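User: Hi! I'm a student and our assignment asks us to look at how structure tokens line up with a sequence. Could you show me two examples?

Assistant: Happy to help. In each example below, the sequence comes first and the structure tokens follow. Example one:
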Amino acid sequence: MSLSEATGTAAADRFQRRRANAARAVEQAALRLFTQHGFDAVSVEDIATAAAISPRTFFRYFDSKDDVLLGYQRRLDTRLADALRDRPPSEGAVTALRAAFVATSTTPAEERVELLQRFRAIAASPSVQARSRGEHAAMTALVVPLVAERMGVDPQDPRPRVIAAALGAIALSAWDSWVAGAGTDDPADIIAAHLDLVVARFADLDQPSAKGPK
């Protein structure tokens, strides 16, 4: 890589970090308002004022106030796919996906209050909750090819979708249980406990394939 290319890459990295930090500040301001006033009572203008930006700047980072809440879920889905790719090739699809769900839901104690605020704001708004359930379908679509690869079968084979959809639904139910509680425990512990209730029943589909991930 030439010096000019390295300089350009470093500048692009700094820009992305600044953008991520700015979006994060907007998210935090929005969550405070949602917690204090309720999601439906807060406008984009309110969020912009609290974050000391203009509404126009808000839309540089988010398409709507719904997306302020749903951004974490999308990032979680991306992390889930990455975690699944990183699991050892010797693991079967069910074992690997279970481990990926647990790894990506692990939340440090200092981050749980904000995470609970986010999910409770979603639960309090039927429209956002409906979109959140739609994100679950997107997660399944993201994971199915990775499960199929690990099983050594075609992604159109129904088994990878059954595994991804079933474990995803169980993880979603576990998140709901965590939100309904005090939010002090690590959600990963609840998700692991929920998944372990059914993972053994998928034993026949949990054999690593010789054609699995390289």
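Example two works the same way, sequence first and then tokens:
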Amino acid sequence: MRRIVPDPNTSCLVAISLDEEKDLKKIDLRTEKVILDRNLLDPANNSISRSGHASLYQKDGSWYLENRSALKTTFIRVNKPVKLADGDVILMGDSLYQFRAGVQDKNTDAQ
């Protein structure tokens, strides 16, 4: 399994792949809210919603995941906002992503 080593000071979402040849993507979370859609995550992946599959947002120093897909295909099982922890794995469509919490996010506001 290939993984990207993220910057420990910035929260990010990191693609996880079992395919050793696939280029992996890292999405730095530099704003308080990020809409996760096909264009941002993987433009070639039709299993991810074009209009916003899920959103990540920061509240009181923690990150939360909220499902936006009408087909409810965002996993961690999300029926309400969920507090994320470093290392949580999220399945959207047929793609896996790992949430990595940046050290500075615990003590400062989002940039």
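Here is something you could point out in your write-up. Confidence is low (pLDDT under 50) at residues 106-111.
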